[in-house]
Each structure stands twice: as structure tokens, then as C-alpha cells.
Amino acid sequence: MELLQRARAGDHDAFSALIEPHRGELRVHCYRMLGSLQDAEDALQETLLAAWLGVEGFEGRSSLRTWLYRIATNRCLNLLRSAGRQPVTTPTPVSLPEPSRLGEVLWLQPYPDALLEEFSDQTPGPEAQYESREAISLAFVTAVQLLPPNQRAVLLLRDVLGYRARETAELLGLTEDAVTSALKRARATMNATRSPVPPSPSPGGPEERALLDRFVTAFTQLDVDALIALMTDDIWVRMPPLPFEYRGSDDVHRFFSVIRTLMGRIDRMVPVRANGQPAWGEYVRDQITDGLHLVGIIVIGLSGDRICELTRFETAVAPYFGLPRTLD
Question: pLDDT at position 93, please?
């Protein structure tokens, strides 16, 4: 209470101490809303600025955490509704094979596990439907991006954070009936993309390490048959912000066969983790300087002892992962 009183009186240090315990979870919430780590960081900074400018009028009718979530969610909604929000794509340097389909979610970036370690999730409220690990996975975040803005906000507030319908309605300035209706539609969309998967090996355990070692060997050598042997029959390969998506062993085999012919091998994979999943910085050797240059970030999803999805991202978020642009 003393910190709040000092913050209301204009003490910025007190305000910083007041909001610091919530910074990490607010960034994750913005990321879930926006699908972009860079946009989430911008939305977080806007949230904290708005909170600082408005803290004098904060009357404590809700908790400070709920007040901050109200500001953050509405900042994200404003950004989602902005007509100018379009991903910047880099033309692919090679002619890719015909995709299985064109994806709808192009505005997507990975989220470093190192940032997840900055906070431990608050205990979700009684209405939560998702565990923390699933709610940060690439599959979940990708599915959320298919929802219209209001449905997205309602689903995250209700089923991830566990706010009750009345609380969610107050946060968003909606009626309870509108919240209930939006949640019903959002759950129907999410359930259509949600399927049970076998339990994966424990992160960092010997089974996972053995699987990842086999993957890195096959991937760096672009041994297409060995890669396919590690994957499920319904494997997905995606590469946002490019819309091309490949699904199933045959299409993915065709994709990697073309990549192997046109681009050759990958020279080094530097392990990181993203969205609670195994990930790597992807480096190739410059034939002139002989240095290694970062060309992408690979994130894989596991289903049992197989790889069920592989997503390749551009390098814009490399600094958040501690991945240098070049290696000697």
C-alpha cells in the first residue's frame, strides 16, 4: 500500500517496484495476443507508460494486476485493429515447391524460454482451461491468431488466466452475454485445431537429447530420408512470414529435397529453446569470409518420440535468444 501511495505521489522508483513483479507475465500476455515478440515488447512499454500516467487515478477497485491486464489487453486490441499492421516479408532466395496450402498466420515469432524464466505464472483463476506449458506452445499461439480480436482477448482472459465472466466483461467493457458468446465461438475454433498427442520426452532428458541429436545430424546434412524417419506422418513445416505450408511425409520430403538441391547443407545449429520447445539458430558458412552467418531460427514440436511440426523463422528476434549474427 505504501508503494502505491508513493507512486500516486509521483515516485517513479516506487512505481517501478510496484509493477516489476507483473512485467514478465504482461509481456507473455501481449505475445499471446499478438503472436509477435517485437510487437509484444512495444505493447508492454505502452502499457507501462499508460499505467504510470494513470496511476494517480487508480482507485484500487480491482487488484493492480487486473488493472494492468486491462490496459495491456486494450493496447493489444488497438494494435490488432490497426489497418497498417502487416508483416514485412523477405522474398525467398529459392523457388520453393508447390505448398500443401497457404497459411493464414503470417504474423508470428518465437518466444525465448529465457524470458519465461523471468517469472512464474500466477496461479490461474478457477475458470482456466489450459496449462501454462500448452498456453505458450507455438501450436496454441498460432491457433489463437486465427481468432478475431475480441474472441482472442476473451479466450486468453477466461481460459488461460482464469478470470470469471463478470471480471472479463469489466476488463473489456463488454456485457457478460457478449463475453459468453465470444468465448463459445473462440472455444469452437480452438477445439477444431486441438488434438491429443502422446506425451513428449522430458525437456533436457536423455530421450529428448538423443532425438534432438539425431535431428541435428540429419538437418545439418540435409539427409531427407533420415529427417522424414524422425517425423510423424502428418508433419507440418511452416516458415512465417512466408505463407507456404507443407503437411505430411510426401510433401515435406519433396520440400526438403528441393532445399537440399538448391541450398546445400547447414553448417552449425546453436541450441536454444522457444515456446517451451527445442529450437536452434541456423548458421551457414560464407564462402568468401569463411565466417558463419545466422540465417534462421528453427523450432520443432514433439509428439511422443517424433517431430510433429517444424517452423523456421527469420532472424529479427535473434538478440532475444542471445544468438549472434556471425560466428567465427
Answer: 54
Is it the case that residue 76 has pLDDT exceeding 90? yes
* Residues 217, 138, 238, 321, CA torsion sign: negative
Distance CA 84, CA 22 (A): 29
- Prior bond to 240 cis, omega within 30? no
pLDDT of residue 119: 64
Distance CA 326, CA 262 (A): 22
What cell was used for 193? 485445431
Strand pairing class (277-285; 268-274): antiparallel
Q: How far is residue 7's CA from residue 14's CA, in Å, rounded to a whole number?
A: 5
Q: Note the pLDDT tens digit of each residue in 159-188.
A: 999 999 999 999 999 999 999 999 999 999
Helix/strand/coil for 214: helix
In the numeric block, the cell 528441393 is attached to: 258
What is the SS3 assignment for 18? Answer: helix
CA angle 14, 21, 78 (to 5 degrees): 95
Helix or strand holding residue 309 (H, E): strand 306-313
| Distance from chain centroid for Cα 99 | 23
Q: How far apart are the first and last CA of the chain?
A: 53
* Region of poorest pLDDT, from 114-118, 147-151, 165-169, 207-211: 114-118
User: Is the pLDDT assigned to residue 27 strictly greater than 70?
Assistant: yes
